[in-house]
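Quick one: structure for this chain?
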Amino acid sequence: MTTTIHTIDAKGRALGRVASEAAALLNAKDSIHFVKNRVADVNVKIINASQLKVTGNKMTSSTHKSYSGFPGGLTEMPIKYVAEKKGYAELLKHAVMGMLPKNRLQDIRIKNLVVEE
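Got it. Here's what it folds into:
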């Protein structure tokens, strides 16, 4: 099997649309070599992440949650600050991570995602 590389251009597209397309490609359920207990040889590259379109008031009203694993370690901040501090790549990875299946393969699959500003 050879590694399949998919490129997604995020210029002018909505955050959720790009994330759902990337999650579907990382799952590789449309592949003829799909096996549910193995990670497919699929790499997804998202380019122009800084030119994403975030619609409505989501930049101020939506929150990005991260949990450190310790008691009281839940941090919530508007996605506007996350985009300024860590970039749009963090928002995309967080959105794709939420769309992947919650199992042992989730961390391995997310490593096959490359986001370029």
